[in-house]
Amino acid sequence: MSQEIEIEFKNLLTEAEFLKIKAAFQIEDNEFILQENHYFDTPQFSLKELGAALRIRKKLEHFVMTLKEPAKVGLLETHQMITEEVASEMIKTGKLVKGQIVERLFHLGVDANKMTYFGTLATIRAEKKYRNGLLVLDHSNYLTVEDYELEYEVQNEVEGKMDFQTLLNELDIPIRHTKNKVRRFYEQKYEEMG
Questions:
Q1: What are phi and psi of 180, to 5 degrees?
Q2: DSSP, res 155
Q3: Positive or negative CA dihedral for 74, 68, 43, 193?
Q4: How many CB atoms lie within 10 A of CB 123?
């Protein structure tokens, strides 16, 4: 298990803005890596209500289960490496493998035995070092949606926010209030469910 605090800024992009950033940072097509996020919650959306999220991410041939929960600054992420077989079984059954994630869910008052698999969000992602952080350029597909996003992962919230806003201004990209991927995924799911 590993834990870390995630501090990131994000901004939804148009396709043209995505291409502008790709060109500005000289990102080649072969630098994008496919990752799949498989999302879980209880049928009552207990995690969503807590501002938390649970996913299994497949990146290259690695599978990591991650629980994100609110922290004083950013999000506390708890990571647990799992095998492809375990990931596949969890997606089929919703039954979580024992370990640190289940322990954190118990601590949050969420019944790990009531988890349900809700769907997959596929993203091609490229990453570039920028100032004191990591710039992440994403093109995602989920349910009936295709979107583009720029993220900036930092250690220092104040400095990172200034750097991110400066970058957007320099590229003439408006700052847009952007929800995280799991929230966008669930909102789209609600909409499609009627």
A1: -70, 165
A2: S
A3: positive
A4: 21
- Residue 8: strand, helix, or coil: strand
Q: What are phi and psi of 141, to 5 degrees?
A: -130, 130
Q: Do residues 65 and 101 lie in contact, with contact meaning Cβ atoms separated by under 8 Å?
A: yes
DSSP 65-133: EEEEEE-SSSEEEEEEEE-HHHHHHHHHH-PPPSSHHHHHHHHHT--GGG-EEEEEEEEEEEEEEETTE
Length of the chain as a residue count: 194
Spatial distance between the Cα atoms of 24 and 19, rounded to a whole number of angstroms: 9
- The reported pTM is 0.89
Q: What is the DSSP letter of 186?
A: H
Tokens coding 44: 């009552």
**CA gap 58, 84 in Å, rounded:** 9
Summarize pLDDT for 148-173 with one digit per residue, the tens: 999 999 999 999 999 999 999 999 99
Rounded-to-integer distance, Cα 193 and Cα 175, Å: 30
Q: How many CB atoms lie within 10 A of CB 185?
A: 23
